[in-house]
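Input set for joint prediction.
Command: fold jointly, output tokens.
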Amino acid sequence: MADIEKLRKLCKLMVSANPGDHFHALDMRFTRLEEGKVLAELPYSESIVGNPETGVIHGGALTALLDTCSGFAAISALDDLAICPTMDLRVDYMRAAEPHKPVFASAEAYRVTRQVVFCRGVAYQDDINNPVAHCVANFIRLDPEVSAKMTQMIEPFLEGIE
Amino acid sequence: MSKITGIAEIIQQAQSASSPELIIDAVPYARLLGMRSVYEPDDEGGALIFHLPPKKSNVGNPTLPALHGGAIGGFMEMAATIHVLMSMDVVKVPRVVDFSIDYVRAGRYEDTWASCSVVRQGNKLVNVAIQTWQQDRDASIATARAHFLIE
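tokens >
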């Protein structure tokens, strides 16, 4: 399994290293990391509203949240600290997210094979049993040599992260 | 607080003026992405395509650099929503039921384009296919499909 402490630092690096990028635009936060399981939070913001009359956020922001959360869950299920590209993602929208409230996401890697990490996730507000959206997402594993190289490349950057 | 112009009114204006930009300008998330729309000349009076100019707030990986997969997905989903509004006689924002995306190439930090087509329109449900490309229109970076409920 991945070193959770290093994984936590990698997540922090990814969401904070590039001010003004998409992570900052959405203000996504990762609140919990375990082996194969990740929790995240997307605060409510006027800038992600999809319907200006109701104030409901756009599905695209949820897609970004679930993609990122599932992607970190995929990384957390692997031995090497290596980023896995998203192969595909499907989001089912159960209901509109209530405005002015954060959306939480929980994602898990439920199957790891030599080439692919299979993940699923759920986005919710007050109650995980009354979800806003569900997702399934598959991630491609990099070749072992490539991912070992990536681990080597990433590790020095983690040293400065608290 | 003064009431903003109703979204139904904006949609009607956009439809009658063939100006999807009116909708884009009214939707905060579309403005956050920085997307635009253009009509490409074709035999039937112009095909609507969507443009996502490079914008730092859509970057997910600074080392390549590459666009965030979520920004690409959001762009495609937004494009599909506007495409439905512009090609049908509806004034309520269509409700997305599900959205499925295949990422087939890395989205580089450059101009990105999307085109949509309605695969099937029923009484309540619309199926839309979305293609996204960068320099080469024949080399999609992602393909997606969405189901919308319309009223």
